[in-house]
Sequence to fold (215 residues):
Amino acid sequence: MNLILLGPPGAGKGTQASRLVKERGMVQLSTGDMLRAAVAAGTPVGLAAKAVMDAGGLVSDEIVNGILSERLDQPDARAGFILDGYPRTDVQADALDAMLSGKGLALDHVIELVVDEDALVDRITGRFTCAKCGEGYHDRYKLPAVAGVCDVCGSSEFKRRADDNADTVRQRMLEYRAKTAPIIPHYEGRGIVSRVDGMANMDDVAAAIDAIVDA
Ligand code: AMP
Fold:
């Protein structure tokens, strides 16, 4: 089972992808996570990507296609993957088709999380994660049960993404509308696109996704 999760920043792609990883042993392929790791490690890709990411723009197709293709070659991707944040442009969608057919892989579903963009700024600007295990939290909607201590692993270190501020979020949404939403018709003709109400509560979103995947 190979999926693409589509939706603007803050739609819940990462949350749903990590749930599918835990519950189904699938692999989450987040180009945003890969790029953040490259930035943190100071690699040439990270150096090239950092300024664009901080401004909420899109990193070049060439760079992103390269890192995704390499990641798909790792054996765990054969267990079933969830693409989270890729493809984001027409060029990436075409490149993905070529990569998958070259590697003998196929897409089963493209799931679009449909959301109200105004609510997303509020969702995104409050979010933070455990620096150790990656559990997600939110200043208003999901604080740790004990202040300052991760519910899952007990760590007291948390982090926030540099690009989760209101200005950058607006730019990321513009990019989504201009470049990413237009790729949906690319998959529509294949009959693999489904839509889920991303504004519903997390469990309902999860149930809707499960229904699609298990159909
Ligand atoms: P995300 O974690 O998916 O929100 O991505 C964070 C940032 O990484 C984006 O705002 C882009 O700057 C960059 N990025 C992640 N995935 C891609 C992609 N597929 N194409 C271009 N840029 C990307």
